[in-house]
């Protein structure tokens, strides 16, 4: 537990902030509040590949299943 507290910062940077949106199929998608595409201005989205590794934000689109997450209800 002590090791985990040493690794986590006390203050979040702008790179750690994401916008949470509910997609039309009730999945949740996360987009960066800091980074955008150079040419189009499209937001970068958080996505995972088939192995569960993080994908590059500029390669992920909000319509692809790799960026869709299932929300867990709080009980």
Summary?
InterPro entries: Fibroblast_GF_fam, IL1/FGF. Keywords: Developmental protein, Differentiation, Mitogen. The protein has about 80 residues and is mainly beta.
Shape category: globular
Radius of gyration: 14 Å
Overall mean confidence score, pLDDT: 85
CATH architecture: Trefoil
Structural class: mainly beta
Number of domains: 1
Total helices: the number is 1
CATH fold-level topology: Trefoil (Acidic Fibroblast Growth Factor, subunit A)
Q: State the end-to-end CA separation.
A: 25 Å
The fraction of residues assigned to DSSP E strands is 15-25%
For the secondary structure, the number of strands is: 3
One letter per element, helices H and strands E, the order comes to HEEE
The parts where pLDDT drops under 50 for at least 5 residues are none
Q: Which percent range fits the helix content?
A: under 10%
Tell me the major beta sheet.
3 strands, antiparallel
The CATH class, by name, is Mainly Beta
- Strands of the widest sheet, in order across it, are 1-2-3
Could you name the key traits of this structure?
Trefoil (Acidic Fibroblast Growth Factor, subunit A); mainly beta; 3-stranded antiparallel β-sheet; 1 helix; 75 residues; globular
Please describe what this structure looks like.
This protein has a 3-stranded antiparallel sheet with strand order 1-2-3, with no helix packed on it. It contains 1 helix and 3 strands, in the order H-E-E-E. It has a single domain (20-75), classed as Trefoil (Trefoil (Acidic Fibroblast Growth Factor, subunit A)), CATH 2.80.10. The mean pLDDT is 85. The radius of gyration is 14 Å and the shape is globular. The chain has one helix at residues 2-7, and strands spanning 18-22, 28-36, 43-45. Strand 1 (18-22) and strand 2 form a beta hairpin. The chain has 75 residues and is mainly β.
């Amino acid at each position: 537990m002590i090791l985990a507290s040493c690794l986590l910062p006390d203050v979040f940077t702008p790179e750690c902030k994401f916008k949470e949106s509910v997609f039309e199929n009730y999945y949740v998608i996360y987009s960066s509040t800091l980074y955008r595409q150079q040419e189009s201005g499209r937001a970068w989205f958080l996505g995972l590949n088939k192995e569960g590794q993080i994908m590059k934000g500029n390669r992920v689109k909000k319509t692809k299943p790799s960026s869709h997450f299932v929300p867990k209800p709080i009980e």
